[in-house]
Every structure is written in C-alpha cells, then in structure tokens.
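Milestone 3.1: sequence recovery, worked example.
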C-alpha cells in the first residue's frame, strides 16, 4: 500500500494545503517529482527557468532529508511513470495541487483515470491560489467577474469573512515515508534522476531556487522595500519590486503566506499596492478557469478580425533587441541575457510589438515563454492580452506606450539603458532616442 504526494508547482514544505490534507488523514506519503523530459528539454523552456527548477528540487530534497525522507525524481511523462509504478505496487492515495491550465487539466484527468481504474484514490487540492471555482467568487448576477477592480473588491471581502483559510495546522515531520523504505521501493527503476547531477547551462546569479531562498527574498523585501513599493515599483533602474515571481511560479513560496502578511498589515499604501499585484496573479488564474479560451484566443472576441501583420525582420529585431529604440532594446537584451524583465519593461516591449509593429500578441507570448525565468501560462497570457488590448479590462487600443517618454520617466538617468546597450554606455546625452 503506497501513498504519494506528487510535487509540481508547489515545491515547498511550509504553508501547503496538500501536506495539510495528508496530515489530517494521518497518512505517510512518498514525495515524488516527475521530470517530464519533453518539456524540460524543450526549446520553449528557458534555460534560466530550467536552472531555477533544478535548484528548487535540490533544495526540496535537502529539506525532506532533514525529516529523514527524500525526494523521488523519475523521468518520463506522468502517465507513463504512474503506470510503471502500478506494474509493481498498488497506489492507494495520490495527492497533488490542483492546476488550472488546459495542459495540466488534461494531464491530471489521465493520471486520475489510471489511478482510479487501479482502485486508488486521487485528491486534487486547491493550493496554488486562495480562491478558485470551489469558492463561487461570482458577481451579483452569479456570473464570473471579467474586470479586475470588482474582482479584487469581492476577493478581499471574501477573505475578510474567511480569514481562517490562511491558517495551517500540520507537522511536517509526521508526513513522509523514511528514505530507507523509499530507496527499497524504487530499487531497480531505470528512470530515477539524480537531480544534483543535472546540467546547468545558463544561470542568473540574482535568482536562486528553493524554499529557503524564497523566504530570504520575502523577508528582505518585507524589511527593506514593501512599505515603499507604491513609490518605487515602476522604476527600471531600481530594485523596488519583490522579484518573487519565479518563487510563486514554482511554489517555493506560498501565496497564502504572502497574502496573510499583507492582509494583517493592511492600511499601508505600499503593502496594499503589493497585495493588489498578488491579486492580479489570482485574477489571471481565475480568468483561465472561467474563460479557458484565452489560452489560445482573444479574451475579447471583438478583436478576432484585427489585421495583425507579421514581418519576420521586424519581429527578429524586436526579439534580439535591435529595433533602434534604446529602451525597447535594453529591455529585450535584459530579458535574453538574464531571463528576467521588470513589469514596466514587459509592458513597454509588449506595447511596442503589438501596437507599433502590429505583430500578434501570441508571437510575444511565445518569445517570453522561451526566455522568462518566471514564465507562468496564465500571468503571461493575461499580460500579453492586456498590452495588446484584447484582454480583460484591457488598455484601450488607442493607448500606446511611448518608448521615449517611458524611458524618461522610469529610467530617468538612463542607467538601465546604459547597462544593457554598451554602444550607449558612454553617451551622456540623447540616451532615449
Ligand atoms: C506582457 C507581460 C507578460 C508577463 N508574463 C508573466 C509571467 O510569465 N509570469 C509572471 O509571474 N508574471 C508575468 N507578468 C506580470 C509581471 O510582469 C511579473 O509578475 C512581475 O514583473 C514579477 O516581478 P516581481 O516578482 O518583482 O513583482 P512584484 O511587483 O513584486 O509583484 C509581486 C507578485 O505579484 C504578481 N504580479 C505582479 N504583477 C502582476 C501582473 N501584472 N500580472 C500577474 N501577476 C502579477 C507576481 O506573482 C509577482 O511576483 C507579465 C506581465 C506582462 C505585461
């Protein structure tokens, strides 16, 4: 009789609804991660993201070892891996965090079917966001929200009256099967992966994966930045934002932990503004749940016949940071060289691609997927549809970010531009054009 916790985008031991559910059932579980090599090695997976994932897995394994357990990492597609386990053992219970994209839902339906056909039970637990479709967060017509501001208001009200949902009660040390037993169970599996041996070929030294690292970043931000977040968050030449997005993507930090702190310390402009951004993340997942067509189509069908133009040379110039517009080029080079781009930068280059070059937002969406360390299907899609003007409460089609004005305002001394455009590094004037 085996029970599993299948870790995916929830690579942490603290503030986890999944681990709490296991604890409440008094079960002992085997922690497993499945390395889907097709995705891992795909050209669409940014090498920076790959590195961050490896570091997060290594860190999770070390954390489990502190509780005398370990992390089993098996290579293959999830369906294949569970079928392989089932040829030797019965799986009684499988726990994982519920995910909301079409890809994840299809994968999870297949795995659930397989486990249930073999008389096991599957528990998909809400763990990636605070409210999902289980919570009926709907407008007065009982319909899903389509606009951020009323969504945020309802979200905050719901949280106010359900604050206890941010509490957790479990003891990590009572949850996991001992590593010696796990080693015996998986002896002879030829697709076991030694994660510490996976090759790292591109790394951004400003970002490190893992739960301990996430706590460090979060604590630093809370102490040094959060109260000034509303003033500093838009500057490209200053680290005024949390840089927690890769941690939220891989779940090395829990949104519950962040929301709890912010909610308990409200009435501070910086903290309220920061919480709002966290709610944007929730909002795009919510939109994906109720309007899954956004993954491949415009949220707003009014734009379905928009005459996008695809000019390959222009697109490549944009991708490579060679448009001739310093701020656009600096942002794209920053993205390509580091896997990271400030939100303001994402908006500037997004607007430039869609509204100046008239290239379809899907092209930008794909390029970001290939490059970003924090790529997240729903936030990326939401961001792109927002800049293109095809999404939820989108910026109207006539609102275009002027690259020169944007750089004068948000990179006032041209520091960011000089950092990424060496050709301009010695120029003292005329940096913006
Ligand atoms: C075109 C475009 C593409 C984007 N693609 C992604 C993506 O793939 N992954 C991703 O995590 N974010 C994406 N964003 C949102 C945003 O740019 C990043 O979340 C933010 O820059 C991350 O930096 P930070 O952690 O310092 O953010 P902070 O300002 O510190 O915000 C805290 C957290 O709130 C969330 N958040 C902040 N802004 C947004 C937003 N506009 N939409 C959704 N969530 C938000 C993130 O989880 C972020 O980590 C995109 C935005 C645009 C305009």
């Amino acid at each position: 009789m085996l029970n599993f916790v299948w870790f995916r985008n929830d690579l942490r031991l603290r503030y986890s609804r999944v681990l709490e559910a296991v604890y409440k059932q008094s079960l002992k579980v085997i922690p497993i991660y499945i390395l889907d090599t097709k995705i891992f090695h795909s050209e669409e997976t940014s090498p920076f993201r790959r590195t961050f994932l490896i570091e997060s897995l290594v860190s999770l394994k070390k954390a489990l070892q502190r509780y005398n357990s370990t992390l089993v990492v098996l290579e293959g597609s999830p369906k294949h891996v569970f079928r392989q386990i089932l040829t030797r053992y019965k799986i009684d219970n499988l726990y994982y965090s519920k995910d909301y994209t079409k890809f994840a839902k299809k994968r999870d339906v297949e795995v659930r079917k397989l486990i249930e056909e073999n008389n096991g039970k599957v528990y998909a637990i809400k763990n990636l966001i605070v409210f999902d479709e289980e919570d009926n967060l709907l407008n007065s017509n009982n319909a899903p929200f389509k606009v951020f501001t009323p969504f945020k208001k309802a979200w905050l009200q719901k949280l106010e009256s359900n604050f206890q949902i941010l509490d957790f009660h479990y003891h990590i040390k009572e949850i996991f099967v001992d590593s010696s037993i796990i080693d015996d169970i998986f002896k002879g599996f030829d697709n076991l992966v030694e994660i510490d041996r996976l090759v790292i070929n591109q790394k951004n030294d400003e970002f490190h994966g893992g739960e301990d690292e996430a706590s460090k970043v979060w604590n630093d931000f809370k102490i040094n930045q959060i109260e000034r977040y509303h003033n500093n968050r838009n500057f490209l030449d200053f680290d005024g934002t949390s840089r927690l997005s890769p941690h939220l993507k891989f779940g090395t930090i829990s949104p519950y932990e962040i929301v709890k702190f912010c909610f308990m310390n409200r009435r501070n402009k910086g903290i309220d503004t920061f919480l709002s951004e966290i709610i944007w993340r929730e909002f795009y997942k919510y939109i994906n749940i109720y309007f899954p067509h956004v993954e491949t189509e415009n949220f707003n069908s009014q734009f379905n016949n928009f005459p996008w133009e695809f000019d390959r040379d222009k697109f490549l110039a944009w991708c490579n940071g060679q448009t001739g517009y310093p701020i656009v080029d600096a942002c794209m080079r920053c993205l390509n060289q580091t896997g990271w781009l400030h939100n303001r930068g994402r908006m500037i280059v997004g607007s430039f691609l869609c509204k100046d070059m008239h290239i379809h937002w899907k092209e930008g969406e794909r390029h970001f997927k290939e490059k970003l360390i924090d790529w997240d299907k729903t936030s990326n899609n939401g961001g792109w549809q927002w800049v293109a003007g095809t999404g939820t409460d989108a910026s109207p089609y006539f609102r275009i970010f002027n690259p020169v004005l944007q750089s004068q305002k948000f990179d006032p001394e041209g520091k960011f531009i000089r950092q990424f455009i060496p050709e301009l590094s010695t120029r003292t004037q005329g940096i913006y054009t």
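The first strand starts at residue 2 and ends at 7. The pocket of flavin-adenine dinucleotide is lined by residues 233, 241-245, 248-249, 277-278, 280-281, 284, 342-343, 346-347, 350, 368, 372, 374-376, 379-380, 382-384, 387 (CB under 6 Å).
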